[in-house]
Amino acid sequence: MTDHPITRQAAILPLLERIADALERMAPAAVPPVELNSADAFLWSGHETRLIPVPVVSRVEISLLKGIDRTRDALLENTQRFARGLPANNALLWGARGMGKSSLIKAVHATVNQDLPGSLALIEIHREDIESLPTLMSALREQKRQTIIFCDDLSFDRDETSYKSLKAVLEGGIEGRPDNVLFYATSNRRHLMPRDMMENERSTAINPSEAVEERVSLSDRFGLWLGFHKCSQDEYLEMVKAYADCHNLDIAAEDLRAGAIEWTATRGARSGRVAWQYIQDVAGRLGQPLNQA
């Protein structure tokens, strides 16, 4: 004796409902409406799929970034063109630590918005959220405001695949990058992957020349490559003096210079970051607050 069709349907219905509920939970969360005019800068929360406004950006004035004149001018010109709706390139700022890569991006954003008020939004995305980048791009596609997406300290290690999401949205995806969006990234690695990893893949691959081509091609998606190199002592001292003058530190020039040289000797490095750390130490010892940006 066979079951009646209605009986079978009644038995299957709860199973279908559970499947439908499971699929709904697996579906990507809907992106809340993007309000790009509510602030000039935002943080992208990948797990919440939303933009978080940043009322005050931690940044330095562009005039205080010393020893990077050519890279500063190149990034500023590229960003100015983009803010005016003209063609511009994605930018990769790579090189020595502490030489102002992320500071330059934030300073350029502020400078352009001073010249063209409200023209440019800045969205920071963390490296861990790169896989959600296509979702963010889709949300920005219908926006009118020019937007720079910024990822600090971008790099990929062995077995990571999230770089494929970045490749697709920069150039290779079926929709491509929205006209109103540029991607700026900083990295200590020129090709966004460690040298030993590249060499190991070459040595173990059947075709060494093609083994790393897919990953290296990611850096090729950036039309503008800007290198940052270690600074000389004169450049380092110029940074220290610029910070001291900007914050009106009450210290003799000779004492400031001698202390700066001693400070960098104990750190074993010279950079804009080391110069700023020294200035914070000087201001603390003098009992002087630092001026807010």
Brief sketch in words of this structure:
The chain is an alpha/beta fold.
How many alpha or pi helices? 11
What coarse outline follows from CA principal-axis ratios? elongated
In the CATH scheme, what's the topology name of the largest domain?
Answer: Rossmann fold
Total discrete domains: 2
In words, what does this structure look like?
This protein has eleven helices and seven strands. It is an alpha/beta fold. It folds into two domains: 36-228, 3-Layer(aba) Sandwich (Rossmann fold); 233-286. α5 (163-172) links the parallel β5 (146-151) and β6 (181-187). α2 (69-83) crosses α3, α9 crosses α10 and α9 packs across α11 (272-286).
Notable features of this structure?
293 residues, alpha/beta, Rossmann fold, seven-stranded mixed β-sheet, 11 helices, 7 strands, elongated
Topology record:
Layout: H1 5-26, E1 41-45, E2 50-53, H2 69-83, E3 91-95, H3 101-115, E4 120-125, H4 133-140, E5 146-151, H5 163-172, E6 181-187, H6 195-204, H7 208-211, H8 213-220, E7 224-228, H9 233-246, H10 253-267, H11 272-286
Parallel strand pairs: 1-4, 3-6, 3-7, 4-5, 5-6
Antiparallel strand pairs: 1-2
Helix pairs in contact: 2-3, 9-10, 9-11, 10-11
